[in-house]
Amino acid sequence: MAINTSRNIAAEERRSQALQMKVAGATYAQIAESTGVSIAQAYKDIKKRLGEVRKDDHEAVEQEWHLQMTRLERLLLRWFPLAIGNDDDLAELGTNQSLKIMSQMNRIGGLEPDKPLIQFNTMVTDGTTTFADLLREATTPNVVIEGTTNGHAG
Description:
Elements: H1 6-23, H2 28-35, H3 39-56, H4 58-83, H5 88-109, H6 131-139, E1 144-145, E2 148-149, E3 152-153
């Protein structure tokens, strides 16, 4: 059991305040300014509090999830028409914003893992081989033509 020091109690109160502000629609920058911490710390505070809440109150977490998804859906409705429109400049802007919003929706919805599912640990020593070359080599079937493999002398 953790010892409740005044510092720990203050941090717990700050996390609760940060979560309440986030639910009310505040940005991380606004929360950071109001609670006297960095934006990164505000994000960590909310993440920690949500983790604690998740264990204790499934209904509150579900409400927060629906609130965030509703906000993101509204933003997507704003940008998606531009993404599929005829104006190339606006289409680029709309596409970029739409992809960011959809990525956030995937993250919140659990469709995007916290860590990559595949790790690429490839060492290239010659300095001229690109990742595209490695992929091409990995996906090209071995073709044997009289004394060669993949067109190279064997």
